[in-house]
DoxX family membrane protein (Salmonirosea aquatica), 136 residues
Amino acid sequence: MIRRIFSPPTLPDPASWGVLILRVGMGFFMATHGYDKLSSYLGGNSGFADPIGLGEETSLILTIFSEFFCALLLMLGLFTRAALIPLLIGMLVVSFVVHGGEPLSEREHALMFAVAFVAIFLTGPGRYSADQVLFK
């Protein structure tokens, strides 16, 4: 029984399944953050932090683009590496600019997203992605 639990998975191409789960999971959780911001913006609220001096509304629009639209691309595995760049930049800004002077416990959420995004960027979208279907 113990051997069965710790033996390698019998799925075909387990690494691609792992990347799929990571890609869809991280994209979904990030899209929930972006959807909240998108809903607020469409409701007329454009107040937002301006961490890098682009203006509040511009910062909000870029954050929505990153956290919602790029997260959807990530879940689909479409233009995956290109979609990860704004996501990673956003998480680094949140970690080191917005929460830069705060303890690690306040920054770890964004840093965990950043680590996952780097891992996906390095491995690529995997076999089960729109990139593989369209750009094979």
